[in-house]
Amino acid sequence: MAHFIKTSALALMVTLAGQAYAAQDSDDFVEDASAKGVAEVEAGKLAQEKGSAADVKSFAEMMIKDHTAANAKLKSIADSKKLKVSDNAQLMDKAKSMILELRSAKSFDQAYANNQVKAHEATIKIFEDEAANGKDAELKAFAAETLPKLKDHLAHAQALAKAHGGDAAN
C-alpha cells in the first residue's frame, strides 16, 4: 500500500495538471496538452533537484528543454486562435511539495522513471487522437509533428525505468 501511495504521488503532477481528454474539441486538446507540458517541465525540474543518477538528471534536462519548446509553440498557436493554455504553477508547487514529503532520494529515480513512462503513454494517446481526429488543421499538424519526439521520450523513459528497476519499463 505504501509503495502504491508513493508511486501515485509522482503521477499526481500529470493527473492534477489536466482532466481526462474526452472530447475532440480544440479547447480540450490545447488545455490538456498544455497542462501535461507544464507538468513535464515541473517534474523535470524536480528530478534535477531530487534525482541522484546522472541518466535521470540528463533525461530531466531533455524533458525541460523539449517540453518548454513544445509548450511555447502550442501557446503561440493557441493565442492566435484565442484558446486558453494551462498554467498551473500553483498546482505544480503543491504537487512538488507533496512528492518531496513522500519520496526519499534513494527511490526517487525509479519513481520518476516509472512516472515518465506512464505520463508519456497518456500524452501520446492524446496527441495521436488529435493528429487523427482533430478539427483544427494547425493543431492537428502540431500534434502530428510533436508525436515522434514524444515517442522518443517514451523509449528513453522505458530504458530509464528498466535501468533503475522500475515496473513501467515494458
Description:
- This protein has 170 residues and is mainly α.
- The protein has one domain: Up-down Bundle (Ferritin), CATH 1.20.1260.10.
- Helices cover 81% and strands 0% of the residues.
- The protein is built from 6 helices and no strands.
- The protein has helices at 2-17, 26-50, 54-80, 89-102, 105-133, 137-163.
- Helix 1 crosses helix 2.
- The longest helix is centred in the C-terminal third of the chain and has 29 residues, at 105-133.
List keywords for this structure.
mainly alpha, 170 residues, disordered N terminus, Ferritin, elongated, single chain
Briefly say what this structure is.
By secondary structure, this protein is mostly helical. The chain is built from six helices and no strands. The model is unreliable at 2-24 (pLDDT under 50).
Q: Which stretches are poorly predicted, pLDDT < 50 over at least 5 residues?
A: 2-24
Q: How many strand units? A: 0
**Average pLDDT, all residues:** 80
- The proportion of residues in beta strands is under 5%
Shape: elongated
Can you tell me the CATH topology? Ferritin
Structural classification: mainly alpha
SSE series = HHHHHH
**Number of helical regions:** 6
Q: How many structural domains?
A: 1
The CATH architecture designation is: Up-down Bundle
The whole-angstrom Rg is 15 Å
- How far the N terminus sits from the C terminus, by CA atoms, comes to 22 Å
CATH superfamily: Ferritin, core subunit, four-helix bundle
Q: Mind describing the biggest β-sheet?
A: none
Helical residues, percent:
over 70%
Q: For this structure, what is the CATH class?
A: Mainly Alpha
